[in-house]
Every structure is written in structure tokens, then in C-alpha cells.
Write a structure and sequence with these properties.
The chain contains 19 helices and 27 strands. It folds into 4 domains: 53 residues, no CATH class; 244 residues, Rossmann fold (3-Layer(aba) Sandwich), CATH 3.40.50; 75 residues, no CATH class; 108 residues, no CATH class. A 10-stranded mixed β-sheet has the order 4-22-5-21-20-6-9-11-10-19, with helices on both faces. It has a 6-stranded mixed β-sheet with strand order 1-27-26-25-24-23, covered by helices on one side. The relative contact order is 0.13. It is α/β, with parallel strands linked by helices and 627 residues long. Helix 14 runs parallel beside helix 15.
């Protein structure tokens, strides 16, 4: 074991995605590296001559601004997520979270704590119709751009802008916005995770190509058609559009399988038992197939009608669906149905409900009767707020269908929505958990886009209030129905933790404008304490925890039994890991002895709080990191 005599520094920014990918590649193909750098020629040889396409003309997908989008992805974030207890509900008991801020910055911050942990992602991004908003990422200073977008716009009006089709880069601007966000989303998915993306005709073709590149076209599962409305637009110039699309990709399609859906009442209604068959309800299906006599001569044979005794032959263009031996078995098992009075001229086959089961494989057409439509989404907002505070909400039943297909009710599955809008995904998770006793958790990210309202000034504020009202309604419903919620495996979680994207608490290094020695000395003196003025212990602890890969559901508590020093224990219940942190201005080894720190313990403190002796001793005892 290597002894660390000098403490490590707590990271000042989010993960460097480029460095992490290179590290994983180095682990898989070490021979592809030379003098610390990736050698494309060595990589080509390691993968084999046929693995690399070097043709000058080959199929690929690109757009104007792609390099900038990649640069936006690779630029680490120096932001943090501030806990907002006042805007939260049941902070100490909940596992749900709502983040207010630009989703690209937020996803970068969530990369370490949630890498490979999300079971289901659903997003409803801007459809790029020319009026919807896009996110103009500032590749050099993304956080400053975020702050400008959230009401602190500069004189140039650097805030949310529309993307008119006359702008010249109509599709490219939208793709550049989507690329880094989808790339990060894939990194967060579990091996058995999936992503659903709502989209319309404007960008479905480009989105499909983009997701093929990011997720792999081999992981495409389905392009679902959602019947979003019933009323026809008779004033439409060409066609009345009644549907949108939902693209579904798996992290690993070869191992992922959808959960089967319970048959709807209409599907079960077809199963009856008019002949009192002891095997229970059944429905009949056609006994012929779409093959001709010439194609399937063995399926062209006479069947004796049980009532008339006549020989019945199929059509020469549509023969029986079963060979003679199978047909004889059907007769012996009383599986042929000729009608209640034998009135049918050809038999039908009885299919029993007990044999097919009460569940079905999901279909690619989702009807409004089964998963609701946009009108139901609007009515849900109106019933909660008694006003139309959000114009385009998706219905909760639509997302509920996705939860039924892709999550395990008792799997403690994490559901992420980083275009959260009014918070429909949160409502869907809470209501589905109530319906099946599940313990799913939601994690929402929503831009604080201004609404022009005084009661709910941002869309993020609408989302938080919606969750509060849905939670209150569910509590009231439970009380009225006297539901035995205490008998659940765990208490029903109807709260959420609120967080806000904000600048880091760590002082950024700003080299003096000139090479003046005194200016450098002043800057170094300022860095004696890396924390900016105005910090709070809870905020700094959460920032450090994010940098160390701890989730937003972390728990903190002061360590008891210490004299003259304050130490907090930070625990991530999902990962079962913890670390200790002290933000005191001065630490003495004697005061820390009761902690009994060992080699596996991580202890974090301010660098200026340690003298050389204390730092050396702590570095020998444990994993020491300083601010």
C-alpha cells in the first residue's frame, strides 16, 4: 500500500469526461497508448485491420456546430447544487429530488454520483417548431451563461432565444443542444436501463440518427406512435396531426426486456365462455392462414362439419392454419368452435385466457384511451392549480405506461427527467407507486425559465408546487380511503428535496493581469482560504459530496463525543458509503483521536486548518483530502 504523506485536494469541478473515457480505453486497450497519449495507428492495429473504416466516402451523421457541441460536453462544470430546504417537502425522509438549473450543467454534476444508476430516463425536449426555446450553450463559460439565462441577462440580451427556421442553422442548433445532454444521459443509465424521448415530425428523423450514434443503432427498441388528441384540425392546410412519437432506446438491448402490461378491460371483454367450457373464458381466432394451396399443399384437406357431416374445405387462396395431425389434436381437445348452434361454415380456434395469461407485450401504438392525450394533461394542471399555469404538459398516464414497461415496483428504481417542465414525471412516479405499492424515486431537472407570472415566476417553481399539490392530494386520498400505508415495505415517499444550480463555493484562480509580484502574492494570500465569503456548512458539505460521487439523497449528522471540534458524518444510503468532514479553521490531532480513523476512512478538511504534523499524521491514518 502506498503511504500518502501529502493530502489530496477535493476536486474543484465535475468529472473530466474526456479523461475518464481515455482511462477506460487505456484499461481495455493499453497497447493503443504511447508516451501517455492515444495513438490512432496502434488502436487500429489492436482492433484489427477490418475494424476501422478508412474509406474516404462512408456513411456518417454530422451537422454544423458538432465540434462546439462536443466541446460543450467535454468542458467540466465548476458549479454546484445548493440544497434548498425551504422549497423542499419532507427533506429528511424523502429520496426524490428536484434540481433547478440548466440541465447540461446539472448532468455534468450528477455524472459521478449517478453514473450507471438510472433505470429509466424520460425527456420531453423542445420540439424545435420555431417558437419553442433552445438552450444556447456558452462553451467557454457555461455557468455564467446559465446565470444570464435565469434573469440576469446582460446588455446583449443573452437569455433564452427561439430557433426560427429562417435562422440558417435550424436543425443544427437543435442537434447541438441535444447531443451533449443525450451523451451524458447514456452514461447515467444502468445496464438494464432505457430512455424514452418524446418528439414530433420536425426532428424525429434527426433525433433517430443522433440517438443511433450515441446509444448505438443496435440498441434501438421502438418508435412508438402516441395518439395525442382526438379532435381533428379541420383548418389544417394539409393534414390534421393526431400523433407524436416516442423513441425508445436501451442501454443494452441484448439483455433488456420490457415488462408485460396487464390486459385492459376492453381486451379482457373478448374472453367469454358461452359453452361453459371447464377451462374457463376463451375467445376464438380464425382457423386459416394467408398461404395458398400451391404454397402449402399439406394445409389443404377436408374437415368434417360436426352438425351437417359435410366435408369442409378451405379456400385455395387461404388454407388451414394447422396441419392434419394438429387439427386432429384440436378436435380431441374440443378447441374448435362452430358457433353456438353450429351455424358457422368454417371452424374457429378457441384460445383460453388461462393459457395466454392476463398480461401482454407492449405495442408500438399507444391509444389515447389507454395512456391519455394532451387534453387530459391540461385538465390535470387545471384541477391542481385552478388555472392554466403551463401550456403543454404531457399526461401522467403516458409516463405511467413507461414506468410499467421499464421499472420494477420494488426495485427502488431511479427515474430521471432533465426536461421536467411542469413536473408530470414526478406525478406519474408518485401515482404509480401508490397504484402498485412501488418505491420508485424521481430526479427532475428543470430550467428556471421565466413565466411572466407573479405567483409562479419560473417553470421550475410550477414543477415544485405541482409535486406539493399532488402529494397533498395523495395524502388526503389515503386518509379518506383508510389505506394501510403503514403495512408497506417502507413508508410511502411523497416528498422531495429541492436544489439550485449555483456557482462553486471554491475560490477560482484568477491570474493577475500583469506579472506584478505583489499581485501574485495577494492572490496566493487569498487562496490561503479557498472558500468564498458567505458559505454555509450545509452548502459546502453538499458540494464536496457531489465531487466525491455522493447522491442528492445523502444524510449528514454531527459526530458526537468530540471536544473542541465539529465533524460531520456524510452518508449515502444508496451506495452504503460515508466520509467525515470538518470545516473548522483549526484542527488538532488530539481532538480527532476519538474518530479512530482507519485506512479506509475519508476525512476532508480545510488545508489551512492543518499544521504540517497534523497533516502528516492524518495522511498516515486515513485517506485525507483538503479544500
Amino acid at each position: 500500500m502506498t503511504t500518502r504523506l501529502h493530502p489530496e485536494r477535493v476536486a474543484r469541478e465535475s468529472a473530466d469526461l474526456r479523461a475518464e473515457r481515455l482511462a477506460r480505453l487505456r484499461e481495455l486497450v493499453p497497447e493503443a497508448f504511447s508516451e501517455g497519449r492515444l495513438d490512432p495507428e496502434r488502436l487500429r492495429r489492436a482492433l484489427g485491420e477490418d475494424a476501422v473504416d478508412e474509406r474516404p466516402e462512408r456513411y456518417h451523421f454530422t451537422w454544423a456546430g458538432r465540434r462546439d457541441a462536443i466541446r460543450a460536453l467535454q468542458t467540466p462544470s465548476r458549479a454546484t447544487l445548493l440544497p434548498d430546504r425551504a422549497a423542499s417537502l419532507d427533506w429528511d425522509a424523502t429520496g426524490h429530488a428536484v434540481v433547478e438549473g440548466d440541465n447540461l450543467e446539472a448532468l455534468k454534476l450528477l455524472f459521478r454520483p449517478y453514473f450507471g444508476r438510472v433505470k429509466l430516463i424520460y425527456i420531453d425536449p423542445p420540439y424545435n417548431t420555431g417558437n419553442d426555446f433552445v438552450y444556447p450553450d456558452d462553451f467557454a463559460q457555461p455557468l455564467q451563461n446559465y446565470l444570464a439565462l435565469t434573469g440576469q441577462a446582460d446588455a446583449a440580451g443573452n437569455r433564452l432565444t427561439s430557433n426560427p427556421e429562417t435562422g440558417g442553422r435550424y436543425h443544427s442548433a437543435w442537434l447541438s443542444m441535444m447531443y451533449p445532454r443525450l451523451f451524458l444521459a447514456r452514461q447515467l443509465l444502468r445496464e438494464d436501463g432505457v430512455i424514452f424521448v418524446s418528439i414530433d415530425d420536425h426532428e424525429v428523423h434527426n433525433l433517430r440518427l443522433l440517438m443511433n450514434e450515441i446509444f448505438g443503432e443496435e440498441n434501438f427498441v421502438a418508435q412508438v406512435i402516441w395518439e395525442k388528441k382526438y379532435a381533428k384540425q379541420n383548418d389544417a392546410t394539409w393534414f390534421s396531426t393526431s400523433h407524436d412519437y416516442i423513441l425508445l432506446y436501451a442501454r443494452n438491448k441484448s439483455t433488456w426486456r420490457p415488462r408485460r402490461l396487464e390486459r385492459a378491460a376492453a381486451q379482457l371483454a373478448g374472453y367469454r365462455n358461452p359453452d361453459n367450457d371447464p377451462r374457463g373464458p376463451w375467445q376464438s381466432v380464425v382457423y386459416t392462414c394467408n398461404k395458398t394451396r400451391a404454397e402449402r399443399p399439406n394445409l389443404y384437406y377436408p374437415i368434417k362439419h360436426p352438425c351437417t357431416g359435410e366435408a369442409v374445405l378451405p379456400s385455395e387462396t387461404r388454407v388451414w392454419g394447422y396441419d392434419l395431425s394438429t387439427h386432429q389434436r384440436h378436435v380431441e381437445e374440443n378447441r374448435l368452435w362452430w358457433g353456438s348452434n353450429g351455424e358457422k361454415d368454417k371452424p374457429r380456434l378457441k384460445v383460453f385466457l388461462d393459457e395466454v395469461g392476463t398480461s401482454v407485450v407492449p405495442d408500438t401504438i399507444w391509444h389515447r384511451a389507454d395512456v391519455a392525450d394532451t387534453q387530459e394533461g391540461k385538465r390535470a394542471i387545471l384541477s391542481l392549480f385552478k388555472a392554466v399555469v403551463f401550456d403543454t404538459p404531457k399526461p401522467a398516464r403516458l409516463i405511467g405506461r413507461m414506468l410499467q414497461i421499464a421499472t420494477d415496483p420494488q426495485g427502488n428504481d431511479l427515474v430521471l427527467d432533465f426536461f421536467a417542465g411542469s413536473g408530470t414525471t414526478a406525478q406519474a412516479v408518485l401515482e404509480q407507486n401508490r397504484a402498485d405499492g412501488g418505491n420508485r424515486r424521481f430526479l427532475l431537472v428543470q430550467m428556471p425559465e421565466p413565466t411572466g407570472r407573479t405567483d409562479y415566476p419560473t417553470i421550475a417553481a410550477i414543477a415544485r408546487e405541482r409535486i406539493r399539490r399532488v402529494s397533498a392530494r395523495l395524502r388526503e386520498t389515503a386518509a379518506q380511503a383508510e389505506l394501510a400505508l403503514a403495512e408497506r415495505a417502507a413508508p410511502e415517499d411523497l416528498g422531495f428535496r429541492a436544489f439550485r444550480l449555483a456557482p462553486s463555493h471554491f475560490r477560482p484562480w484568477q491570474p493577475p493581469a500583469d506579472a506584478d509580484v505583489e499581485a501574485y502574492a495577494a492572490q496566493l494570500e487569498a487562496f490561503a482560504d479557498p472558500l468564498l465569503p458567505g458559505w454555509s456548512a450545509e452548502d459546502v458539505i453538499h458540494e464536496v459530496a457531489l465531487r466525491e460521487g455522493y447522491g442528492l439523497g445523502l444524510r449528514t449528522e454531527p459526530v458526537a463525543g468530540l471536544q473542541g471540534v465539529t465533524v460531520h458524518r456524510v452518508h449515502d444510503p444508496d451506495r452504503g458509503q460515508h466520509f467525515l468532514i470538518s470545516l473548522d479553521e483549526q484542527l488538532r490531532l488530539e481532538a480527532l483521536r476519538p474518530l479512530a480513523l482507519g485506512p479506509d476512512d475519508l476525512f476532508v478538511c480545510r488545508d489551512a486548518a492543518l499544521d504540517d504534523e497534523t497533516a502528516a499524521n492524518l495522511a498516515l491514518q486515513c485517506r485525507l483530502k483538503t479544500l
